[in-house]
Each structure stands twice: as structure tokens, then as C-alpha cells.
Specification:
This protein has 1 helix and 13 strands, in the order βαββββββββββββ. The chain is mainly β. Strands 1, 3, 4, 5, 7, 10, 12 and 13 form an 8-stranded mixed β-sheet that branches. Strand 8 and strand 9 form a beta hairpin. The N and C termini lie far apart (54 Å). About 7% of the residues have low confidence.
Amino acid sequence: MRPTTLFSTLASVSLATAAALAPRAAPKSLKVISFSVFGSGCPYETADVRADPSNTALDISLSDYVVQSGPGVAASEWRKNCKITLNLEYDAGFSLSTLTTDLRGYAIIPSDTKGQCQNLVYFSGESSKASYGVTLPGGYEGAFSLRSSPDVEVWSPCGGSTAILNVNTMCSISSTEKRGLIAVDRISNKLSVRVALNWKNCKN
């Protein structure tokens, strides 16, 4: 396989839908007060989260996220996940949801095989969950940057100034007989997830 680069927007939307997904005015302040991590894809001190200065996105980076398949590779390496729980604080009177996720990394996907990644996003205390899924096709080798839109829209409770946002990044390779890889980008040395945010003012 010849190395290449995969850039794609996986969601096909109409102009009306695209307009509906356009981010609304963000609050003047957004802080990640703290975050915790759990999962096989993010060993201790290998994850970081930052709020974009525009307050319209969260950037998650994972420096030791590696999914592998092939002869002699343990079953525990075929799929990985990293759940990040973020304690967010922002101007009172707003509610937020997530618009898109952009997943960047490096992959080697043999022919007759596929890689899959899913970002599951939800707010603590709320029952709804939004799923962002992408597929890495067989016969691909190189860097990738894949955008996905959610299957449903979920919002934090209205009117407060805090929210607990959970982002669970899960990747796997199937079938597992051939050597495959989903891992950190070879330039940045990170698997990164950019979560675009949407806001609404509950006072309006």
C-alpha cells in the first residue's frame, strides 16, 4: 500500500441542514476546570484537553492511543477506548451541544479489512447520547482527518454555568488476521479529536 492522506467530511447535509448546524454566538468565557480519563487508549498522563480561544471547540489529544491487529497481536490490542470526562464552566444562562467531531491520526488498514472509530458524546445526568462514527477503508495507509456529524443532537441543561461533558473515543480493526494499525499521527505524535460546540442563550 502506498502512503497517502485521507481527508473527508463523512456527513452529507443539505444547505438548510448546514445552516441549522452553524454555530451560534458563544459565551465570552469557557473553561475546562478539570478532566479525568479512563480506558485502554489513554494510560496515565497521556491525554490533554484545551478549549479553543473562540470558545467554539474543545481539542482532545491522546499521545499513546494505538490499535493493532495481526498475527501474534493480543486480542486486547484489537480495540481501544478512552473516555474523557470534562468539567466545564461558562457564562451563566447558556446551554451547549456538539456539532461535529474531527478525528486525526495515522492508519494502516489492509485490504479486505476495515477500521472503525466512534466518538460517543453525552452530558452527565442526561439520558441522550450522540454518536459520531467514521470508517477507514481497506487498502489504506497514511494520515487521516475525518469529520462526522451526530446521529442525534444533545444539549446540556439550560440556564446553568457548568456542565459535565463525556467524550468516549473508541477505535477497532476487523478482521484481525492481517496486520493493521490505528494510532497517533506521525508528525504530531497524537491522535486528536476536535469537538465543535454549539451554544444557545437560554434567556432569549
